[in-house]
UniProtKB/TrEMBL annotation:
It comes from the Eukaryota. This is Uncharacterized protein. Keywords: Signal. Residues 1-19 form the signal peptide. It comes from Tetrabaena socialis.
Length: 237
């Protein structure tokens, strides 16, 4: 039930780099991190379900599907910190396929996504309801969980005027659990912007985009939209 794909080409990309802004025009290199290599959605779902796995390495682009979770007890209740990390030389495209409500993060759990370009992760507006369709809200009586995007690229399916996006982050207060100051830069170029490629089969991060920006450091409360249109806290930051 994904919204029309034609919006995909009006994608504003935000690279999230929680370290200092990159001054050299390349993606940060992959440092040999140990983990379980997952080359498809089924392997990633199995890794999330296996409590002995804490790091899933993604060597190639793939699309996640609902059926990748068949046979697993849902939602997967994640009680350990977990990292999903692209292990290629550029951010690996992880198409979450608008798959919904498969994973619940336990109180205080940190889910890190790194070196990944996330697409089709939110069927509604990611600006109105920051979060991933994949995640169900955390339990109300537990501490909040944390979703951390580091060295990632996020695609927004709608472009808003730059001034409006500036006001957006001023409107949201930074969660006290994550001290610091919002530092969001737009426009800011992707490392590959000068040689961007409009070809349909080109790696997502190599394509040409109408607007790109950089989250140097940004933190926000997650939210879900209810069927009646209300926005509710989803218990992760
Ligand atoms: C998860 O990582 C955070 C931050 O590094 C740490 O404070 C916390 O203790 C970890 N939690 C678990 C369950 O390992
Ligand atoms: C990509 O397509 C856009 C929109 O049609 C165009 O403005 C731009 O020049 C193209 N870039 C390249 C490198 O072909």
């Amino acid at each position: 039930m994904g919204p029309p794909l034609r919006f995909a080409f009006c994608a504003a990309l935000l690279a999230c780099v929680c370290a200092q802004p990159v001054s050299h025009p390349v993606w940060p290199p992959f440092l040999e991190v140990p983990g379980l290599a997952c080359s498809d959605g089924r392997a990633l779902a199995a890794a999330l379900a296996d409590s002995s796995v804490t790091t899933a390495l993604l060597p190639v682009d793939f699309v996640l599907r609902d059926s990748d979770f068949s046979g697993l007890a849902l939602p997967l209740d994640i009680r350990r910190n977990f990292t999903i990390m692209g292990s290629a030389s550029r951010p690996v495209t992880l198409d979450l396929g608008f798959v919904g409500h498969k994973v619940r993060l336990g109180g205080g759990v940190l889910l890190t996504i790194s070196r990944v370009a996330l697409i089709n992760y939110r069927s509604g507006s990611a600006a109105q309801a920051p979060g991933l369709d994949l995640l169900t809200p955390g339990e109300a009586d537990e501490p909040v969980a944390l979703l951390r995007l580091q060295d990632c690229v996020m695609s927004y399916r709608l472009c808003f005027p730059v001034d409006l996006t500036r006001q957006y982050f001023e409107k949201f207060t930074r969660p006290p659990e994550i001290p610091g100051h919002q530092d969001v830069r737009r426009p800011a170029s992707l490392p590959t912007a000068a040689s961007c490629n409009n070809r349909t089969g080109a790696p997502f991060v190599d394509r040409c985009f109408p607007l790109t920006g950089l989250y140097v450091d940004a933190a926000i409360h997650g939210a879900d939209v209810q069927p009646d249109g209300r926005t509710t806290d989803n218990r992760y930051l």
